[in-house]
Amino acid sequence: MTTLAPTSLALPADWRDFLSLTKPRVMSLVVFTGLAGLLAAPGAIHPVLGFTAILCIAMGAGGAAALNQWWEADLDARMKRTAKRPLPSGRMRREDARDFGLFLSGASVMVMGLAIHWLAAIVLAVSIAYYAVVYTIWLKPRTPQNIVIGGGAGAFPPLIGWIAVTGDITLMPVLLFAIIFIWTPPHFWALALFVKTDYAAADIPMMPVVAGERSTRRQVLGYSLLLFATALLPWAIGGTGAIYGLSAIALSAIFVALAVPVGLRERTGDGDGSQPEKRLFKWSILYLFVLFGMLVVDRMVLS
Predict the structure, then answer these.
(1) What is the 3-state secondary structure (H, E, C) of 124-174?
(2) Same domain, yes or no, for 51 and 148?
(3) Is residue 142 part of a domain?
(4) What is the pLDDT of residues 242-251, one digit of tens each?
């Protein structure tokens, strides 16, 4: 079994290792959806304050990611796709990652509260705790429903961005939260299907490991269909115009079309056998970027 390099032998970490702790690729989606929520919200916010709000969302997400890696360092060392991260590779001391994560998390909430307002800060704090504690410590090692329940962790940014402008919570930002919440299971389980051996090696009860591929595939398809309906709700309640609505139909139809071959397969094969899962996973990332981008375009055209 692979274990962490001894802390005393850890190499000096540089800025790239600290940046890696924030999971910048994941953060880019977090920042974008937060920005989309901010730009789509009714009303206006001073550009400096808007930038500050998005910076706080990014810092909070980065801090939560650092705390996640601090807690899961031993698990990361047992998985091929995470073994080269700063902690399992021995390039950084665990306490440094912990302190970095706590600093980013605390600073993001404090600045959000002082510069914007405290409702946004409270929701940001809840999102950090949701990911770093509820998902990482409680859900992930205990239940195959970890992604379903834990999906809320990544769904907060557009809600926070909206609150930063309006100062309140209405149905529309809750629906934006719901879209990401429903999007998370098919997105993540598509990945889990072709890296399930990693999760099995680390004894993490991801759905494909615990419930099997067939059940996971059916749920990927089921959640994809649910996502189609959920993505249309902002248009259905009159919160957006046809630009968003028609985009949501087209984008979600492609999502479902890519989920069908995943859902109907019995198992992930060797070689190119995981291509349907990989196609769905890649599209799911582009899907969220374009969908929330169209939300902003729709708002700008209508305003």
Answers:
(1) HHHHHHHHHHHHHHHHCCCCCCHHHHHHHHHHHHHHHHHHHHHCCCCHHHH
(2) yes
(3) yes
(4) 999 999 999 9
206: left (phi over 0), alpha (psi -120 to 50) or beta: beta
Which residue type does 66 have? A
Same domain? 123 vs 235: no
Whether residue 190 sits in one domain with residue 106: no
Quote the pLDDT of residue 8.
45
**Rounded to an integer, what is the distance from CA 231 to the centroid of its chain?**
17
- Check whether 271 has a pLDDT greater than 60: no
Asked whether the predicted pLDDT for residue 280 surpasses 60, the reply is: yes
Using pLDDT thresholds of 50, 70 and 90, give the confidence band for residue 73: confident
- Are 154 and 187 in the same domain? no
DSSP string, 265-276: -SS--SGGGGHH
Q: Which has more pLDDT, 188 or 205?
A: 188
% of the chain residues with pLDDT over 70: 91
Residue 95 has pLDDT above 50, yes or no: yes
Q: Looking at the structure, tell me whether residues 187 and 87 fall in a common domain.
A: no
pLDDT at residue 147 above 70? yes
Taking all residues of the chain, what is their mean pLDDT, rounded to a whole number? 88
Residue 73: which domain range?
A: 17-168
Residue that is last in its domain, among 168, 185, 211: 168
Domain of 79: which CATH number? Answer: 1.10.357.140
